[in-house]
Amino acid sequence: MVRLITHNLLACHAKGCTSNNFPLQFKDIQVELREAEFNSDFLRGFLPRIEWAALVDASRQLGDTSLPAEQPEMLDDDFLQKLHHVLLEIHVEEGAMICPNCHHVYPISNGIPNMLLAEHEIG
Amino acid sequence: MSRPEFQAPPEIYYGDAEAKKYTNNSRIQQIQADMTYRALELLNLPPDQPALLLDIGCGSGLSGEILDEQGHVWVGVDVAPSMLEVALEREVEGDLFLQDIGQGFGFRPGSFDGAISISVIQWLLNAETSHPTSSPPHRLQRFFTTLHAALRNPSRAVFQFYPTSDDQVQLITSMAQKAGFGGGIVVDYPNSNKARKVFLCLFVGGGGGQQVPKGLEAEGADGEEHAKFEKARERLRKKMDGKRKNIKDKEWILKKKDLYRRRGKEGVPNDSKYTGRKRRAAF
């Protein structure tokens, strides 16, 4: 159940990988759509924390083009609905996430990403 | 039986069977729920505002369900795949990660409004291999520094855990302070063996203005001292008082006499309307 809300928070945590380690790139993914409850208060609270470019990029990778490339100033309901869909309703079930810097592969199976590191990769 | 963290590492101890057992045990569910509510209380989130929380050692999502109920969005991490599988079966709402918290988190700075963890960090106190990154201080340090970075300023993190000694408490709090956290230990019901719960309540930022909350005390002078079912026992005793039934009543005597006759014993008295009656007082 990797949703874009968590993907947008997730960087690589392997040893020595401290720059250019965000966002993780998707590879060979299978996506599932599941409806979630719309909560505009939460979205408004979360919006300042979003890395917009990374979110738009990731949503394009998952085949959703509803978000504008620039973060709009005005928060109308239509926009929040789209944001809600992209952040909370698209679930990545299978595939992998790859660090753009150290190319560590985090495999996703059954919707759960495996973030475990080998002994020599622990910081 | 010895503590679970002495028997095997968490990902092995919580195998398929143990994960199911843990999740279906209604007593564990109750305790877990109580502690989650208490942790949420200690977290002191702004009211009526949905937050993004991190559940450290989410297991099968027992505490996550309570976070859902309260309207929060959560992300859970756990090192035991079997527990996460149970969580998937239960269709919990949060995003799940298979992650060893002693290896640190990779979340961007300021990601979460708070973190809770129920009965987890005592697992960090055992070294599984002799590799330097496997020593408890190193794992605690990695855990607390990356967690400190992942939390917003200001925010709180609340951990319920089961320390075996004061040295462990000392080690954990000193590592947390080194990582930049403020705060300290909150002990609920310190005088009760059963109800005693230890919470580590950590603050990020806040300019030192945040006070460590007070632990709960037992209600009444000796509220927790009594055995659990003493009330019921007392009630039963009262009900029985003065109305104790005689065991050797007429029915019992007839049964015995019948038994003797069937066995062919001689001289068994005949039955009459006087059988089993008390003799009249002699005077």
TrEMBL record, chain A:
GO MF annotation: an example: protein heterodimerization activity
Classification via Gene3D superfamilies: 2.20.25.10
Pfam families registered for this protein in UniProt: Trm112p
Transmembrane spans: none
An annotated GO BP: tRNA methylation
Family matches, as SUPFAM superfamilies: Trm112p-like (SSF158997)
Family statement drawn from the similarity comment of this UniProt entry: Belongs to the TRM112 family.
Subunit structure and binding partners: Interacts with TRM9.
Protein name: Trm112p-domain-containing protein
Source organism of this protein record: Wolfiporia cocos (strain MD-104) (Brown rot fungus)
Record lineage: Eukaryota, Fungi, Dikarya, Basidiomycota, Agaricomycotina
TrEMBL record, chain B:
Location, primary (coarse class): cytoplasm
GO BP term (any one): rRNA (guanine-N7)-methylation
18S rRNA (guanine(1575)-N(7))-methyltransferase Bud23 C-terminal domain: residues covered: 202-280
Origin superkingdom: Eukaryota
Presence of the UniProt keyword Translocase in the record: no
Similarity comment text for this entry: Belongs to the class I-like SAM-binding methyltransferase superfamily. BUD23/WBSCR22 family.
GO cellular component assignments: cytoplasm; nucleolus
Methyltransferase type domain ranges (all copies): 54-127
Key words, A-Z: Cytoplasm, Methyltransferase, Nucleus, S-adenosyl-L-methionine, Transferase
Protein name as annotated: S-adenosyl-L-methionine-dependent methyltransferase
InterPro entries from the UniProt entry: Bud23-like, Bud23_C, Methyltransf_11, SAM-dependent_MTases_sf
Organism lineage string: Eukaryota, Fungi, Dikarya, Basidiomycota, Agaricomycotina
Stretch list, region Disordered: 263-283
GO terms for MF: rRNA (guanine) methyltransferase activity
Subcellular localization, as worded in the UniProt entry: Cytoplasm; Nucleus
Organism: Wolfiporia cocos (strain MD-104) (Brown rot fungus)
